[in-house]
Each structure stands twice: as C-alpha cells, then as structure tokens.
Amino acid sequence: MQHFRKEEIPRPEYPRPQFVRENNWFNLNGIWGFTFDDNNNGLKKRWYKNESADKFDKKIIVPFCYQSRLSGIEDKTFHDIVWYRREFILPNSFRDKRILIHFGAVDYSCMVYLNGEYVGNHSGGYIGFSLDVTDFIRENNVLVLRVEDPSTSLEIPRGKQFWEEKIKNIFYPRVTGIWQTVWLEVVSSDHYLKNIKITPDIDNSEIILECEVHGIGFLNLFLSAIVKFENQNIATEEIKLDFLGKFGKKRGHKLVKEDFDVFSKWANTNPNRFKFKISIPKENLYLWDVKNPNLYDLLIKIYNKNTMEIYDQVKTYFGMRKISLSDIPEEDLNRIKKKEEFQSFNRQVLLNDKPIYQKLFLIQGYWPDGLYTAPSEEDIKLDIQYVKEFGFNGLRTHQKAFGPIFLYWCDKMGVLVWGEIGNAYEFSTKAQLRLINEFVEEIERDYNHPSIIVWVILNEGWGVPGADKDLRKADYTISLYYLMKSIDPSRLIIDDDGWWHTKTDLCTKHFYLLPKDLPENFKDEKTKNYPLQLVPNVYLKPYKYENEPIIYSEIGGYGFDLHNNIKRKWGYSIVKTSEEFLNKIIQLLKIFDERKAWVHGFCYTELYDIFQEINGLLTFDREPKFPPEMLKNELDKLFY
Asked: pTM of the prediction?
C-alpha cells in the first residue's frame, strides 16, 4: 500500500480553511490507480471489487486531472468514463469513530465504492461532497471511483472547458475527474457540527450564526462560541443543546426565533438547525475592507458541561463587512414618479456604507501544468498578490467556482471577489436543474467568505441562447435572480453578465470595441445600444434600466505575446511591444476615469494568458509583461 511523507503529498495543506478540525484528518492525495473505460465495461464487470485491481493499468497523481501534465498522464483526447483506485490504511487514531470522506471537487459525476461496496454518488464538477463511510471502513481499505464526464455535452455547466478535442479562441482543455484534495476526517459518533453560516451585521455590531449539529440533545450538552481578534477574546456565547433531535422541544431564550404564520403548528422545523446572535463590542468592531482585511477567529465547541468531555471543536473566521447600494436621491425619485427626464448619476456600490470603485481582473483559474488545479498553495497566493501589485482591488472568478483555499487568501489579502460558476450552453430542463443545483451548492459552501460581494449567475446569455426571442428564457433568467437572492440576500446578484439583463442589482456591460464608441454621458449610457451584430441589447424586453450601478465587467482584452512563442495567438486587439501594451491599458482606464461619475467599476480581461489567449498582463507562467508598479502608479491617481 502507498504511503507518503507529508512533504511528498501533492497539495498537502489543510483543504478547508473556513472549517478547521485540527489533527483529525488524513490526506489521500498522491498516486492512485487509474484507467479509461471507453467502452463502459467497468460497472458490468464490477471494477469496484477488490479482485479487479489489475484493471487499473495506469497511475495518476491526485488531485490533478488526467489531462494535466502534473497528473503524470497528460492525455487531451476524449475519455468520458474513467476509474480511480486507492488503497490506504486507516490511522490508529481513527478507528472505532465516525469517519467522513471528503472530495473537494470531482468533474463531473461520480459513484464511490469502499471495500467493494457502493457508498454514494455526486453530480457537479465544481463543488465538493462528503460521505459518511463509518459502516464500510476497515483497517485496510480500497477506495474506488467511477467518474463520468461527457466531453461534448452542452447541457452540463462546463464553463470554458471546450467540447472539441483541440482548443481554440476563448476555450480551453477539459478537466475530468478529481481536481481538488481527497481526505478522511474523524468526528464524534455522538455529536458534531455539520455546518455553520455566519452573517455579519455591522449596523448592530453583531453576527448571526446558523448552526447545524448532528446528534440528540441532553441536559448537560452545550455549544460555546468564542470570538477572537488578534488572539484576544472579544465575545463569548453559550447555548444549551437539550432540544437537539426533539421536535417541539422548547428552545432557550438566546436562540433567534423564526417567524411563522397561522399555519405554524404544522411547520416541521429542523430541531438540529438553529440561529443565535453574538454581539461585538463597539470598541472591538474592526471592519473588513480592501485596505484593512480584518478577520475575526471563531472557535465553536460542543461539550458536556458536567464531565467537560469535548465532542467537537471547530475553528473558523469571519469579516465584519457590509455590501449595499446607495439610495436614490429623493429629488430623483420624484422625477422618476413623474416620468420626467433628468440628468443625474446612478447609484453606487457601497462597502461598509462607503462608495467603492471596483478595479477588477478577470481570472479564469487555469495553470499550465495543473489546468484547474494550482501546483501549490503558493501559486494561488501569487495570483492574488499580483492583483494588488498591479493596483487593482478585486477579481471576477470567470466561468469556474474557485476552491476554498483561493477564497481564503482573497479574504486574507483584502481582494474583492465576484463569485461565478461555469455555464451550460443549451437550454433544457436538464441543463437548468444542473446549473441551479450546483450554484446553490456553491453559495452555501462559500457563504462565509467576506471577500465575496457579488454572485454572477449567467454570462453573455450562455445557457439561454436566443433569449431575446424566447420569453421562457427571460422568465428563467429572472427566476434565477430571485432564487439566488432568497438564498443569499446579503450580496449583490447579477442575473446575466454583459447583456440580456432582466432583474439585476448591477447593470454590467462588456466592451471590446474602440474607446470612441463609449457613451459620452450618463443619458447616453442609459439608452445606447450597439449594433446587434456587435453587442446584444443590455436588457431583454420588456425589462429596462432601473438606476442600477453601472459597471463594465469586461473591458480591454489587448493581446501581447511577450516572448513571441504562441503559434496561434488570440486576442481582441494585438500589440507588439510592452510599451504599447502598457500605454493602451493606461489610456483605456483614463477614459473610464472620465466616466467615474456614472460608471462605478470595471473588470479588465485579464490577469494572465491562457494557452492561445494572450490577453493577460502576465504570461501563462505568471511572468509580468511590464513591471506591475508602472500600472499601479497610474491607477493610484485615478477613480475614487
């Protein structure tokens, strides 16, 4: 059986920095058995049985997909079904306890077997899943996965993964199978914290905690929560958990009561999910923003107050920050009611009740050797650091749900994030459900990250082709806005980024035309549509601009091949020298600075090159095409 020293395990860091249980996890990254199943024989021949070890004729390095160089395979051809096999010995400290297995992300759908027995499945390539394998675990174990990833299907949320064998234009290699860490975790058989949602409220200087706890309550069972800032205790709260698992049990006065209507006696609430508040003393209220990314630590413990036995202990963190929109001035509201024309400027995005001009990079989450998977945590930190070094304050995670470690470093470094997911390209009930299910999972997983301020659902009408001629697709688009808003009302929601808006918190536009084609004033900005053969209309009929903040969420895209070694270059406008490249970017941003009274942010395409696409300010290997401080020095003079 394969054993690794910690330094030999690829991606050895703790994979879930927002929900840490120390010293009770076991990393399963490393060398696994692997095979292609192009004829779909594996299920029929039961390759998940221990005696089928000889079927796994290849070796793969997890967590890198087989298409990547770091996997040890680097095969870019179509293989829609693949199998993984891993033997491991259960650590002594894990035995006779509840065992969970976690998969950070597996693209696209998989079936999981342990010691020849089926233990669960999952669909969705971006968000991970967990399985309780306590009843199947042994001292010596064989873990097998069957993964199916339809190479050409346009009904799965595939994002930029191309459905043709050879990549081109703005599309890149496919990612099949495991691409984030696989790991075991031990928890108490009696009580453990399943998840926690943290909602900051800076107006009232408090946080709202929503907890879900596994187990049945008893008289001396308590949950304690300790808030710390820079290792100093700031606040504590304690909740008696005698109500767990008991419907109708009267809860303590500290818990937040849910409001029900006249039918409340039929409401079947979950007694293992509850909310409570923790007040942050005003003198200890430190806000999170891009210049001061203050983070609080939160330690949650479930324990028996009589015996002091600790059942579970989880460390997490949060930031006290608020995202909102400025109000419409009263005089403008009166003019709107009277349907009068008026020359005013639109609303602004507020961070902690102050206007924030968003200077974002488009980031697509590919690395030359690992594709979707960064070779190391240091590579992730480097990308985020470059955002700051170029003078930007945020990023749009484009057509991919980025992993928890990436978002953790955005939290730590003070970088704003627009969260997104890969879109499908066909409109069907199957495609709709797949997108909805996975995006909801993403919002739930990433809810606690203070860096995330916006959720982007669709991009440029992908997944709703012809929405300008089909009312069903407009209905679907607007329903997505309200669905995601109901799940996360604390953030801004963009229904369809770039054009074809219905209901949206931000009016976002994409602009790759000549700067002279930009609207000259706010009045033109509200009404101007470009020729449809160039850019579709900003809003779908009958929807229209409703004074949302305007942000150009894709601009630039100037292409420059620093070393002139890309054979088939792709960019929106190709330049030949570093000096020309830098000057074009500066001139474009100065033009947006002239419009900052009504355009409140931009997203530049993009931070780094990706394969044939040479729009980056960095090469694909993350080499700057000019000194980053040269752009930062100019940006620091612009905007607000």
From this structure: 0.95
